[in-house]
Every structure is written in structure tokens, then in C-alpha cells.
Amino acid sequence: MNINTVKTTPFTDQRPGTSGLRKKVAVFQQPPYLHNFVQAIFDTQVSLKGGTLVLGGDGRYYNREAIQVIIKMAAANGVARVLVGRGGLLSTPAASAMIRKYETQGGIILSASHNPGGPDGDFGIKFNTPNGGPAAEGVTEAIFEHTKTLHEYRIMELPDIDIDHLTEHTIGTMRVEVIDPVADYAELMEQLFDFAAMRALIQGGFRLCFDAMHAITGPYAHEILERRLGAPAGSVINGEPKQDFGGGHPDPNLTYAEELVAQMFGADAPDLGAASDGDGDRNMILGANFFVTPSDSLAVLAANAELVPGYRGRLNGVARSMPTSCAVDKVAEKLEIACFETPTGWKFFGNLLDAGRIVFCGEESFGSGSDHVREKDGLWAVLYWLNILAVRQQSVAEIMKAHWAEYGRNYYTRHDYEGIGLEAARGLMAHVESQLPQLVGRELAGSTVSYADNFSYRDPVDGSVSRNQGLRIGFADGSRIIYRLSGTGTEGATLRLYIEHYEADPGRVRGETQQVLAGLITLAAEIAELRERTGRSAPTVIT
Ligand code: VG1
Ligand code: CO
After folding, report:
1. Closest ligand 1 atom, CA of 484?
2. DSSP labels for 243-268?
3. Whether 113 is catalytic
4. Whole-model pTM?
């Protein structure tokens, strides 16, 4: 078998964003775009030489082709062993679990997460470090720097290998093991949760509906919810992974998980509804006629840790991303545990988890997780809720209302303006930022602005500093307005506007979230000259 050293020209646009490098499929399909980025990983992550690499993806279009390229490049770059999910499949949390369990030198995950797939959709690639988590900024920057000067890549000349059967291959000095993508993950879940109590709940007639959105979690949900927990067949819908996610948008929110939402807000709704995204790290939780915001969900997980075997007696700290609502802060205050505020993106939780300073972390973008892996974990959150429901014997709505009564309620919404021009988006952010110093101390929308800044984060573990992580305006009454530009899109810019209002007495404010927040939403638009600068009068998606 020949190793080819191929001359290449560097690209200038391979800087990873919030979660890996994401581009249109057509960009990745054009050699040597993928090859260059993969070579930059091998060149900079030197422990992979002679080490083990976990490899898998969410099954989207171009996943299989990319897997073959990476295997051949791994062989040519001296990797000793590759663990690849059967069919090239691995959910993001399962890949993280596998990196940790087999103590590998890292993993490559192929996914553009919640972005649509198919030939005209998006593709992505992400490197995870030996802790199982997305590479920290220092690592992604080193990879990016290298892509700018790369002149050759190495690839083994060989036919495609069979990744559809649980077998082993030897390629030169490298071993490739095709592994069951579900087994290790399912076993980990059994260690964390009270499966007996959950089985009993379901046997007693509790009904659930899990929407896998034709993405990666289908096989995981069939195995865990239906086979191991005994939920009747049909409890998992859209459970067959498809390369284009069945033409849908694999983003578990009230807009895109239509079929699930119709069931959960229809007559005779199941007791628990849930959905996950393209790569299985997000979750949406619904009760019968009830939506749980992701920020509230994180708070509920933390408040109920004593009910769950894997977490009883060990909750010492929590973290949330800056734009996530402060609901979990209230729980941390009451439990007298640490609470950290990090920039958006799971990579910022890694150090805190590794150092044992937090057990739970989460984001408003339908992500929550714990120290069991180093990624957010969609199905984990669903099982966690199921465990709570089995113990408390209350409905999702009852649990949420009792939570608000105890901790107060953080009304919260995110408005996304997708596909606005890059220039307009940057101009808007600069305009907001220029006003921040003058806002402090002013009385706006019924409260006084107590701080207004461009969020920057100093990692308490390694001291590294990340700047420009979003513009925030905080009020004396706990309300917040936050502006951020997305770092996962592949076209133009997406502005995210996050609005929050805290109500200590949940009985006092009546009305829908959008109504309660209307004053702050209008104020946020005015400060940003939103309509004038973007030409939009309404957001693309509201969550
Ligand atoms: C979005 C979310 C962020 C999340 C990221 C990756 O990033 O806001 O909270 O971590 O997606 O999620 P951005 O930069 O577009 O706002 V996904 O499920 O990759 O895995
Ligand atoms: Co995802």
C-alpha cells in the first residue's frame, strides 16, 4: 500500500466557529478542502501518531465519503488504531463517551449539527481532544493557523473499506475497528439513571413521544426508550437516519419539530415529548400542552439531582453560557453551590468539568449535559426528565410550575434574524457597542441599566481569556438584553437577540412570554436600529 504525499494549496477560510468547521457540502466536496483540514489536525495533534482516533458522524450527506478519506489519511499519518461507528455513524455525545471510555487520543466528528443536510445543505468537521470534548480555542486556533500554510497532505492509496459490518481491518500498520455506535452509550445511560423506576412508569401507562427528526438519535432512541425501557413501538417517530434528514431541518424547536409539536399540543397528548438534533446533542422537552424552555430545563435538572442515582450527593457546581437565562443561578444560590457563566459553545465547559468544579452545564440553545461526557447530550436530558417524572409522579407542567413557585420565573426568549448581510450585522453590533458606556445608570423599559458591556471570559482553570463573546445590557431587576452573531452559520450572518425578565413571584405576571417581554424586545430593536439596518420587521425564528 502506497502513501501518497499530495501537493496542495492552503485555504484562508478554515477557521472553526462555535462548533467546528462548517461549510456548504459543495465546499467540502471540492478536493482538497476536507483533506487540508484533516491534515492540519494530524500535523498539530501529534499524539494521534501511534495513538487511537474515534471517528463517526451524524450520517448526513457526504458523511460516508468523508469517513473513507479520513481513514486513508489516518493510515498515512501514522495513527495506530481507528474506532469507527458502524455505517460511519456516531452521535456527538456517543463519540465523546467513546473517546473517554477507550482513553483515545481524540476523535473526529462529522456533523453540521442542527443545520440542514443533503447536497445543498451543510457539512462540518470537528476535532475532540482526549477528554472527549470539543477542542478548546487554543487548539482550534492552532489548527486554523496551520491550514493557512499547509502545502501537502498524506493519504494511503487503497480501495474503500467496509464500514457496515462489525469487523476489523488492517491497513498497513493501522487497525480499523468498526464498532456498534449505540452499545457503549446505552450502557453509560444505564449507569446514570434508575432504569427500573423508568420502566415501571412506562408499564403503568405513561406515554412518551421522541422525535429523532430522521437524524442520528433514531437508533439510540429505539434501543434505549423502546427496547430497554419498554416504551411501545411507535414511541420513537422519524427514527430512521436519512442523509438529508427527510428534507427537514433537524433542529429541535417548536418551529421545526412539527410532527411532535402537533402531537403534544393536540388532543390526548402523550405525557412527555422530546426531540433531538442532527448529531444528537440537543434536546427539546415538552409535556402535554406544555413547552419547557431549555434554560428552565437546566434549572430543573440541577434542582432535582438528588432524585437521580448518577448525581445524588455530588452536585458541587453548575455552569451556563452567558445568553442562557439565569434560572439555574437561582437553584445554585439556594443549594449554595458554584455557578459559572461562560461564552457560547460547549468547548468552554470542558475545563470546568475536567477540574471537577461543575457537574451540570447547559445552553439556551436546547443543550444540556453533565460530567458523564464532554458534549451536550440530547437523549441524556430526556432520560433525566423521565427519571424525575418516575420519582415525582407529577406531570411535566406540574414540575415546572412547582419550580417557578420555589425559585421564581425567568421569562426568556431568543429571536434569530437569519441570513442578514454580514456588513449590516457587523454595523449593527458596532452601533450597539458604541452606546454601551452611556446606557449604564439609565432608566429604560421600567428598570435601571446596571451594566452594559462586551462579554469577555477568563477561564478560571487555565486563565485563558476569550473576548467579544456578545454584547449584554443588564438591568437592576434582573432583566437582560443580549446581542450576538452566530458562529455556526454558513451563509451571511445570523443575529441572535436574547431577552430575559425575572419575576420573583410567578403568580404576579400573567400572559405569554412574548407579551411579558414585549417592552424589552422593542427596546432592544430600538437600541440596535434593527429595522433600519437589517430591513427586517420580524425575526426568522423565535425560540
Ligand atoms: C449555536 C448555539 C450554541 C451551540 C452551537 C452548537 O451557536 O447558539 O449555544 O453551542 O450552536 O450547537 P451559534 O454560534 O450559532 O449561536 V450544535 O447542536 O453544534 O451542536
Ligand atoms: Co448538535
Report:
1. 16
2. TTGGGS----STTT-HHHHHHHTSTT
3. yes
4. 0.93
